[in-house]
Amino acid sequence: MSTVPVPFSKLETYDKLQFSMIRVHDAFKAGFDSIMEHLEKPPLDDLPNFVGYCTAWAAGIASHHDTEGALNPAFCTRARS
After folding, report:
1. Domain total of the chain
2. What pLDDT digit, counting tens, does each position of 21-47 carry?
């Protein structure tokens, strides 16, 4: 990826995918961190919503994992010049 700022629309497809993967993994880490913070002292008075929050993150991660698995061979084997 270039060190010179380039508009996202001008990036090559591979670089767009790499950028997007990094950002989505950052978001998943933030979600995990949020869940872990709440697990130390679960919101017992609002447990159904907390479980729904955890379930939503799990579903998003599972969906991402499936997509990433389908794209990964092409993503990992691209020859870089």
Report:
1. 1
2. 889 999 999 999 999 999 989 999 999
